[in-house]
Amino acid sequence: LVQVREPGLGAEERDLFTRQVIGLAHRHGCKVMVKSPFPGADGIHFTAVDLMKLRDKPAGLVAASCHNRAEIERAMELELHFAVLGPVKDKPPALGWSKFRDLRAFSSIPIYAIGGLTRADMEDAWRAGAHGVAMIRGAWS
């Protein structure tokens, strides 16, 4: 699963980049999520702010970033497919694994850990109840 998030690109560049990512990913059996509806994308990943404004769950794969219990509760109300919760280690105030575990404990949807994580964090993530980890920088190391 790949999420396209290229806020630094202009609209035209982002459009071209997203089309290329979708084409390449689909050729290899990978799904692609984007920040707003895009032709050919498999789903949308909402920011926490957009999640709280969302009235209905759109079609397709739907996920959101969460940072607290209220956001997780909203994701559950909308029956999203999953959420990412963090930051666990990166950017103060980081949740840490203990707070992650507490927030994850009541969730009825899959929760992935995010925020300064690498493959080396998988065991800690699983022990804290995460379904896995979402990585940006850590995926390249």
Q: Strands of the largest sheet, in order across it?
A: 1-2-3-4-5-6-7
The general outline is globular
Low-confidence spans: none
Radius of gyration: 15 Å
Question: What separation lies between the terminal Cα atoms?
Answer: 18 Å
What is the H/E string? EHEEHEHEHEHE
Q: Report the mean per-residue pLDDT as an integer.
A: 95
Q: Tell me about the largest β-sheet.
A: 7 strands, parallel
Specify the number of helices. 5
The structure class reads alpha/beta
Strand content: 15-25%
Helix content: 25-40%
Number of strands: 7
Distinctive features:
seven-stranded parallel β-sheet, 141 residues
Give a description of the structure.
The protein is of the alpha/beta class and 141 residues long. It is built from five helices and seven strands; from the N terminus they run E-H-E-E-H-E-H-E-H-E-H-E. It has helices at residues 11-27, 48-53, 69-77, 96-104, 122-127, and strands spanning 2-3, 32-34, 43-46, 61-66, 82-85, 111-114, 132-134. Strands 1-2-3-4-5-6-7 form a seven-stranded parallel sheet. Strand 3 (43-46), helix 2 and strand 4 form a beta-alpha-beta unit. The radius of gyration is 15 Å and the shape is globular. The relative contact order is 0.11. The model has no long low-confidence stretch (mean pLDDT 95).
